[in-house]
Every structure is written in C-alpha cells, then in structure tokens.
Design goal:
Blueprint (H helix, E strand, L loop, with lengths): L1 H5 L2 E9 L4 E6 L2 E11 L5 E9 L13 E15 L4 E15 L10 E9 L4 E4 L5 E11 L3 E10 H7 L6 E17 L5 E21 L1 H11 L3 H4 L2
Parallel strand pairs: 4-6, 10-12
Antiparallel strand pairs: 1-3, 1-5, 1-7, 2-3, 3-4, 5-6, 7-9, 7-11, 8-9, 9-10, 11-12
C-alpha cells in the first residue's frame, strides 16, 4: 500500500541552487532543511522551486549556491499558520528522496517533470487570460502514507481547460506536467503592495480514471482547515 502511494506523486527537477540552506523542522530527531533551485524553461526563463531535504540524505554543507543538482522526490503541501502575517497558508515544496550533483556542462533534456494521481477536491474554475488563453484551476488531493494528503494547485490549458471545467469534486485524475513558479502582487489591508510567489503544476497531459472517486480526501481536507477552508484556497 505504501509503495503505491509513493508512486502517485513523482517529481524530477534539475537546476542550480540559488539560496543558502536553512533549517526547517525536526521530526523524531531527524533534521530537515530548505533551499531553492532555479530550473530552466524552454522559453529561457526559470522557475524557482523550493526543496526540502533530510540531513540524513546528504551532508548539508554540500548544498552550496551555484551547484547543479538533480532532485527526485514528491511535491508536497503543508498548512502553515502565522497570525501576524498571512493567517493560514498552503506551503508547497519538493520533498527530496534522492539528490545527485551534476557536472556544470551536464545537459538535462527534461529538467522539470511531475506525475500526480489524485482527486479533485474543489470545483474547477475556468477563466481566460487578458490575452485570450483558456485556463482551468484545479485543486488536487494526492494521498500519501500515514493517512495524509497533499493538496496541489494545478492549471490546465486550451482543450484540457475546457474539458477539466466539467469535472466534479471527488473524481480521480492523473496528470503529467511541470512545476512552475509565478510572481504576483497582493494588496494588504493597509493598502501596501507586496510581491509574492505562487507554485502550481502546469498540466501538459491528463487522464480521468472512470468510475473511481474518493470523497474521503475531500472531507478530510475540509476538516483539516475547518472554517478557514476558503481562505486557504485564495
């Protein structure tokens, strides 16, 4: 059962480390650390993707700015609460299971790949951009071991956007794509404009698992966030 849950969330990303490693948290004496890597796009832009890694996986002193690495793992979500800042916030990170240090001249053909098998836990929202591109926002609940789930924002485009708009809460879908970072501005209650970064999965391919739905994931999500459910999803 556990091996199956590990196979429903698979990520491989390659890029350069662009931040210093910082302590995140400790679980049963095992320390976890965060850093950011810059992953190239075909458009010659970059996605800045956060990574969480165990001190038992690699010597943290080897995580240095400028190093080229390949990370294999899972895309995970965490609920963070900060009363003084944003209240409830959904944090996303690549949880590393393997890390490889690459030569500087190493060329990676597909530096950003993700596969998810999960359940729609919020009604998909169809919209168009100012340039007329069709997009549908999907929130996917992906189960993981120990009765936990990750809640991953995804976006589909074009024909997939029109199709996924019709999907219902609880439906089981499989998606392939890449993790992308997106900068945006948010206006605070005081009128201050602050720059923020959102992370999501840009879907290139999707399949619906017919006759397979999972309402338990949806109810668990609502229970976890209780009255703050809508606020977390903004």
């Amino acid at each position: 059962m556990v091996s199956g849950l590990l196979e429903n969330n698979i990520v491989t990303i390659s890029g350069r480390i662009v931040s210093n490693i910082e302590f995140s948290h400790e679980v049963y004496g095992e320390g976890f650390y965060n850093f950011t890597i810059e992953v190239p796009r075909l458009s010659e832009c970059y996605d800045r993707i956060p990574v969480t890694i165990s001190e038992r996986l690699v010597d943290k002193n080897k995580i240095q700015i400028g190093k080229l690495v390949e990370i294999e793992g899972q895309f995970r979500s965490y609920n963070s609460y900060n009363k003084e800042k944003d209240g409830n916030k959904l944090l996303l990170t690549v949880f590393a299971r393997e890390i490889s240090f690459l030569d500087d001249d190493k060329e990676v053909k597909n530096p950003n790949q993700i596969y998810l098998n999960g359940y729609i836990c919020k009604k998909p929202v169809y919209r168009t951009t100012p340039f007329g591109r069709e997009i549908t926002d999907i929130l996917l609940a992906v189960n993981r071991p120990y009765n936990k789930s990750d809640y991953i924002p995804c976006i589909s485009w074009g024909r997939n956007a029109r199709y996924s708009e019709t999907l219902k809460v609880g439906e089981n879908i499989r998606v392939w794509g890449r993790i992308q970072s997106r900068e945006y501005q948010k206006k605070t209650e005081t009128g201050e404009i602050i720059n923020k970064i959102a992370f999501e999965v840009s879907i290139s391919k999707m399949e619906v698992e017919k006759g397979n739905s999972h309402s338990e994931s949806v109810s668990r999500f609502k229970n976890n966030y209780d009255s703050n459910f809508n606020q977390v999803l903004k």
